[in-house]
Amino acid sequence: MTSTVPNAVQHTDATEPITMFGPDFPYAYDDYLAHPAGIGQIPATGHGTEVAVIGGGLSGIIAAYELMKMGLRPVVYEADEIGGRLRTVGFDGCDPGLTAEMGAMRFPPSSTALQHYIDLVGLETRPFPNPLSEATPSTVVDLKGESHYARTIDDLPQVYRDVMDAWNRCLEEGADFSDMNRAMRERDVPRIREIWAKLVQKLDNQTFYGFLCDSDAFKSFRHREIFGQVGFGTGGWDTDFPNSILEILRVVYTEADDHHRGIVGGSQQLPLRLWDREPQKIVHWPLGTSLSSLHDGAPRPAVTRLNRTAGNRITVTDADGDIRTYPAAIFTGQSWLLLSKIDCDDALFPIDHWTAMERTHYMESSKLFVPVDRPFWLDEDAATGRDTMSMTLTDRMTRGTYLLDDGSDRPAVICLSYTWCDDSLKWLPLSPNERMDVMLKSLGEIYPDVDIRKHIIGNPVTVSWENEPWFMGAFKANLPGHYRYQRRLFTHFMQDRLPADRRGLFLAGDDISWTAGWAEGAVQTALNAVWGVMTQFGGATDATNPGPGDVFDDIAPVELPED
Asked: H helices of 349-447, where?
């Protein structure tokens, strides 16, 4: 059991794991990556040609890595540091092995394209301690001043099981959950498209909260309130209530909130290792070539201007004032940067794509971590026999508190608070120490006999992604009515549909994907963009391993009418 209100249906006959991240474009990226023919090639006349890759997060680094393997010369621009929202930090003065994940920290097994790269660079994963998961010794749910200690869902009061049942029934009755889950597990593309097409037309204008309210299963406000505060999988989901229900269905259909694993040593290792990796199968470049070696160890600095120049080329100006022109470029940063931080020509994109970027809705998110001397929470309370402290879900300011250790005899880390949206904005004016003080006060009300402060061995580290100048938010989350906008962005890599003078600049990154906030979306859109660049250079995939663009017309996302 992985959640306080577990995912909808206990699956039977689950022989085939889900491997497609979203019903909108049911393409098996994991098979594409694993095929011995590779993901495509370009004519030798294009070898060594420079292609700009703007953004050194996971999407940008994967795109650059695959372009390099094809024989192109990616030129990576990065405003901050390689990794993007795969950001792992240490604590000053503490053991360097003690780290905090400021961005992505947990990954579902359904992220199979992501797992391809995790395996490729030799990283290890282990279960992440979500609420009531098997990796979590105990969980405390604290609502309205009343706390409940639990090791499994059965330890909680009946009302929580009632809420779980309501969510199961709501999904089954309103979203054909079992049918879709089965179709995705079996990779039954026609059935996936049949179910999803009806739901997109029916639910594009519906919020998550409205979807709950429309269900007889959730006619109780109390149940909806508990569900919002406690949620399923990773905790409370009330911050998502204003968002499109389609966003939520993509998560539950693909089991994105189930059985999470963390990357041992930190997620930022993935893009950093790809940056340094010397692929054994590479075209044009000699063995021993890496992205790092092609860049003399460091990417180009931030991009300050993008414009089109003669021959429909893309000209890039960076923070050092260097101006370079490319036949193709991939932009992987968050799309709002094209509206604010980067001076852009209107001619870069069709007007409908600019509108889609302007309408992108981003979620705020904050975290704060502290290092502690040991995992004291595993101490048994002599009076109750319970753990001294537990993974905690609450309606207090902290919302979600995670306990992270690497053995009982080693220093450990507490994520004192992980919050989204309005709950994140509440922290924005406070300094790291002020945040910590408020968090410790809230947790002190839940655990009055536990002195957390005495175990802290270093200064807190914190992030509010909405305040990060190169991000301005944590991740995209579509509002009702945004399906058409997202379709424009996701399908942008199919540039034969665009006017000739609007081609050559490709969009990628998790906010271009159908399921943002998950690293899998960054991987998939990077591969889409690579396919687009390859095609522009006259390249192609092997006939036995068609790429996402080769099968596009067969599995394209539902197209809703504009009028």
From this structure: 351-359, 421-425, 432-446
| DSSP track, 38-95 | -S-B--GGGTT-EEEEE--BHHHHHHHHHHHHTT-EEEEE-SS-TBTT--EEE-TTS-
Residue pair 256/515 in contact (Cβ under 8 Å)? The answer is: yes
d(CA 194, CA 183): 10
Q: How far apart are CA 46 and CA 557, in angstroms?
A: 31
Partners of 221 in beta bridges: none
511 within 8 A of 50, measured Cβ to Cβ:
no
What are the per-10-residue average pLDDT scores of the chain (563 residues)?
Answer: 33 56 91 97 98 98 98 98 98 95 96 97 97 94 96 93 94 96 91 96 98 97 94 79 96 91 97 98 98 98 97 97 98 96 97 97 97 97 94 96 93 97 96 98 97 98 96 95 98 96 97 93 98 98 98 96 93
Give me the DSSP letters along 152-199. Answer: SGGGS-HHHHHHHHHHHHHHHHHH-HHHHHHHHHTT-HHHHHHHHHHH
Token match 């968090």: residue? 439
Structure tokens at 318: 């960076």
| Burial of residue 152, with CB atoms counted within 10 A of its CB: 0-12 exposed, 13-18 middle, 19 or more buried | exposed
Structure tokens belonging to residue 75: 């030129």
State the amino acid at position 421 in one-letter form. Answer: C
pLDDT on residue 5: 33
Our measurement of the distance from residue 414's CA atom to the centroid of its chain's CA atoms, rounded to an integer in Å, reads 22
Nearest alpha-carbon partner for 51 in 70, 72, 69 = 72
Radius of gyration (Cα) for the chain, nearest Å? 24
| Residue type at 3 in one-letter notation | S
Query: Tokens 């990065």 appear where?
Result: 78
Both tokens of 447, joined, read 């655990």
Taking a C-beta distance cutoff of 8 angstroms, is the pair 371, 99 a contact?
no
**Tokens 């839940």 -> residue:** 446
User: Could you give phi then psi for residue 261, rounded to 5 degrees?
Assistant: -130, 150
Distance (Å, whole) CA 408 – CA 263? 19
Using the Cα atoms of residue 434, residue 436, residue 439 and residue 443 in order, give the sign of their dihedral: negative
Give the Cβ contact number of residue 343 at 10 Å. 12
Looking at the DSSP bridge assignments, the partners of residue 100 are 89
Distances from the Cα of 556 to the Cα of 26, 192, 193, 204, 488, angstroms: 9, 12, 9, 17, 12
Output the pLDDT for position 233: 63
